[in-house]
Amino acid sequence: MADLVESVLAADANAQHAEKPGPAIPDGGNKFQQAISAWRTIDYTNLISNLDNTASEIVAYQRDSTVQRKELAQKTKDFRKLDDATKLSEIKGLLKAYQTFIDLLTNHSKSINSAFLQAYTSLSDAPDPYPLLEASVDSMLVSEDTLPKLTEENQHLQKSVAKLTTQLEETESKLQTESAAKKELESSLESRVKEVEASWVAVLDEKKDNWASKEKTLEEKVENQERLLNEIKASYEVNQRLGKTDDGDQEGQAHVTSAEIEMLHSDLDRTSARLAEIEARNEQLRLELAQAKSSVPSQAPVALEDDPGYMRMRSENSSLIRKLDAARVEKEGLKRDLDSRLRGLEREVGLLKEERDNLRAKVQKWSDYDDVKQELEVLKSIEFSTGDDDDVREATESAAEAKSQGDTLEKLLLARNKKLGDELTILRVSHQDLQTKLSELQEEMSRTNMDLEKSQQLNERLENDLATLQSESSNAFPSGASVAGTFNRYAPSVAPGRRPVGGRVSPTSSIISGINPRTVGEEPMGGGSGILPMITAQRDRFKKRIAQLEGELSESHRTISQLRQEVSALQKDNLNLYEKTRYVSTYNRAGPSASSSSAAYSSNPNPSTVSIGGTGNPGITMDRYRKAYESNISPFAAFRGRESARAYKRMSFPERVVYSVTRMVLASRTSRNLFAAYCVALHLLVFCSLYWLGTVDVEKHASNLGKSAAAAAAAGAGGPPSTKTSNMRSATLLVPTLASLALAAPTYPTLNLHSALPGNIEDISEYFNMLATKVQALKYLSAEPVCDLTKAKMVSPAEDLPPPSAGLTLKHVAIGRGTQNYTCDTSNATAVPVATGAKATLFNASCVAAMYPDLLEKLPSVSMQFNLTDSDEQQRLGPSSLAISGHHIFPTTGVPFFQLATDGVEIGDAWCAKNSSIAAPTMAAKGQQGEGAVPWLKLLTTAGSTGNLQEVYRITTVGGSAPATCQGQPAAFEVQYAAEYWFYQGKAPVKSAAS
């Protein structure tokens, strides 16, 4: 049987190997047929002959073009050497020569193009013969190697098929005989098994009935013994309690009791022995039954084919043989593939070696390529040069440069020609400029000579006039002072504002002292030497006086600056004193504070204008300080003061009393500390009282109940009494905590009663009703609440926004309360307000979102009805007491920033960009003045964010929308709003934020 299976598996493996394709020929036999037809169409022999003729024509064209190019170059060189008149007559012949050369080049180009297109048209449709020839060679080699092996394997397979056919017929006959014998044995075996089972079933039923009867009798005995034992115990306890019988009776009773107990013990021993015997007998019967069951199949003859171990080993043997044959076949196939690849590689290596040798021989032949190229460039430069020897040398140098730079000779010649033309133009322009300058210099020199002659004539005339004037003054005025006075008063050359007769001013030395410039060494005429000391003395007096005046002026400037500083300091001090006076006047310490402040506010709606001082001049001075003080006050502070005064005026009398008491408490540090101590003591007292009442109540109930009642009560309540007590104590502590936070603590900021709408008043009422419900539920809470953010979920309209990215978890929930900022074009009443950002304070509402989501949804609309506080340190979210968790601002337009950091908690910073938005629901709460709600947003964090924050949601918005137009609006204004902010953390997702 094993030989049969092995033969079948070998035949299958050989068949698969025979069907395995040999080396693939590219694209099958059709490619070979197409290639043969294409090359037949090309007619390679005629194509080569035509190309040979075309090649000979190309060589002839090249020779003719070279000769004509040399002739044309020589004619061009001769033409350049001719003069302009001869060039006009010779240019026609030169143009004709150029036209002939161009026609030759055109014919040459046409013939080359036609030959190329003819060859390309023939060869474009023909496939590459190299892969086809290579595939043919490979297939031929493979067929030579595999044909003998395939013939041998075919003969072997035919022998295996004949052998397997005979073995299969013998196996089928044996199988039929064995199956008939197996059926007979199975029928006889089943009859015997049924007989044995029936006999043993009868035996077991009989024994089972015996055991049941014995068990029933033994149970009755045991019940009797237990009943007797209980009666004896009861009688014994009665006797013990009565204790009135004598000693004799007691001894007799004791003997009777001991006899009965011994009798019971003996019965119990016999019963135990009987049970042991029955158990041993039961075990023996079970053993006999097992032996009987095991002996029944062992008596029947077992066929070898039915043995599972034999069949398993047989199947494993078959699979191993099949795997062995498959591995052998695969090994032979791999060996053949490797042989074919090795032959292909050897053939490729031989081809590469041959190509390498050919290339090496070519390189050796072309070793003088650089020298030949250099010589060719020199010859070209000499042939095409059109100048003298210097030009030839320059052309040679340019050819050498062309070798290094890779430029052609034509490009170098064009560059050289352009350079010479530029130099010629520059020289011509410079020559014209030099000629123009030369003519200008000649004209200027002539004018200068004329001016020099005129100046010499005028100089001589002036000297003569001066000599005549000095001689006359010396004869008429012997005194030097009078000469000086007369000279200074009447001399035309020195009169103020006058010019000399000749139109030029004489030198100062000749005017003052009468010295002739031509006779410097001679003695001066007249009394001119006495004027110079007087002028020098006058100049010294002027200098001294000017120095004194400058000192006095600097001293006066210093005094003025000091006085100005003192005046400014006094003005500042007076302004500070006025501010303090205004501050003191608002409280009016002399009378009740509440009445004085209310009177002040009622008399003047603007709290920044308080009348201080009397009438007359002091009143005018105070008005001046009042104006200076009010000019320094910001418009926001003045507006806040007017709003505070109007709110105080609209208060009722009880509210004013409460407000006055509050101001009195917050007036000084001592009053604030005393009030804080009072609140702490009051809360501690409430806590202690409630805890004591709860403990006393529990102890009272525990003392009235017994142990059994306590156990029953604990079982009915589902836990031990200690758990109930701890739950009651925790609820007792949580209830006063919430109540004190919601009701007893002062709520800041105050409610805005003037802008509250009826719907918003209903929201506030609903909020406090909901808060009362939560406080009532905490009274029956059996465990302390847990702040688990995994339970928090955004409200249903937020589902219209894209959901948080996969893998992100909720990190923080906050209530934002602040303003939306807008700007307006005041010159255009129909302009639309433009949003510039927002500024808000964030309050931690994570625990509220986890435990009371319905209460969280009411917080934005309720907090909108409470005014914002002035200082950031004392901000609270009215009417709750949520702690501040961060701030929200816009450092630049369009870039929101969230800073989630306080003194105790560092959550992170988030720079964001808008991802998507939806309009707020139509039923969203309005703002204080009826403004609509701003849209709901989804933001994605950008670079610079910390705390692993990834996404931010703004939902449940209240107010914040700007009016439709800018009519009646200032250039910049704010609109109050409130919203919920949900922050998610996790790994950074793929962001597609549109800012």
TrEMBL record:
Sequence segments annotated as region (Disordered): 498-527, 589-617
Residue ranges the record marks as coiled coil: 147-235, 261-362, 424-472, 539-580
Domain Cux N-terminal, first and last residues per copy: 29-140
Keyword check for Transmembrane helix: yes
Keywords of the record: Coiled coil, Golgi apparatus, Membrane, Transmembrane, Transmembrane helix, Transport
Location relative to the cell: Golgi apparatus membrane
A GO BP annotation: intra-Golgi vesicle-mediated transport
UniProt similarity note: Belongs to the CASP family.
Name of this protein: Protein CASP
Organism field: Colletotrichum gloeosporioides (Anthracnose fungus)
Lineage: Eukaryota, Fungi, Dikarya, Ascomycota, Pezizomycotina
